[in-house]
Design goal:
The chain is of the alpha/beta class. The chain is 34% helix and 14% strand. It has seven helices and six strands; from the N terminus they run ββαααβαβαβαβα. A six-stranded mixed beta sheet has the order 2-1-3-6-4-5.
């Protein structure tokens, strides 16, 4: 079983914890990781891009010249796609890019991402994150003490409103809970910080 050091908010070592091999020591499946990340990014797209077709561009009602005898190619409108200020042929229209993956692939992707973080020494476990008030400086100091000030994902077992509000102003810092964390956020973070309670909940849900 992989073993990690448990830290407190000041960066001081307060113990060790053995992690479940079923979650934190699997062989990362690169194909599944790619599929899960691609799915996540596709589902984030708004799909609101839109271009005007020749029927939607203003103008072009009059035939630019007579059909025959001018030496020009025949034209019926100045808003055809080949004209300047004409409509766009086959351009994008609003649509949804959303599609679904089965739950097994998402679970494999998350386990692969967490295992990769452990292997790279980029997973940090803290005993607890306790805040008495909304204080960004407290979270900044914690990240600095843990060596995670560059880019961090903080995961707790339940919603911590004081933590969410305090970390909201920190560039590169993101908070989540076990039930909402995703593979992309884990891979995209420089360091992933889990509380002991979050690790226990992960193992309870996914260590099967």
């Amino acid at each position: 079983m992989p073993k990690v050091t448990i830290y407190d908010m000041t960066g001081k070592s307060v113990g060790e914890k053995e992690l479940s091999e079923a979650i934190f020591a699997v062989e990362p499946n690169k194909a599944v990781l790619h599929a899960v990340v691609k799915n996540y990014l596709a589902n984030q797209r708004q799909g609101t891009q839109s271009t005007l077709t020749r029927t939607e561009v203003s103008g072009g009602g009059r035939k630019p010249w007579r059909q025959k005898g001018t030496g020009h190619a025949r034209q019926g409108s100045t808003r055809a796609p080949q004209w300047t200020h004409g409509g766009v042929a086959l351009g994008p229209k609003p649509r949804s890019y959303r599609y679904t993956l089965n739950k097994k692939m998402k679970v494999v992707g998350l386990k692969s991402a967490l295992s990769a973080k452990v292997a790279a020494n980029e997973l940090i476990v803290v005993d607890a994150i306790k805040l008495d008030e909304y204080k960004t400086k407290t979270v900044v100091n914690m990240l600095k003490a843990l060596g995670a000030e560059r880019k961090a994902l903080i995961v707790t077992d339940a919603v911590n409103k004081l933590l969410v509000g305090s970390a909201a102003n920190i560039a590169g810092c993101k908070t989540s809970i076990v039930g909402e964390m995703n593979t992309y956020d884990v891979l995209n973070s420089g360091k992933t910080i889990l509380t002991v309670a979050a690790v226990d909940k992960l193992e309870e849900v996914y260590a099967k």
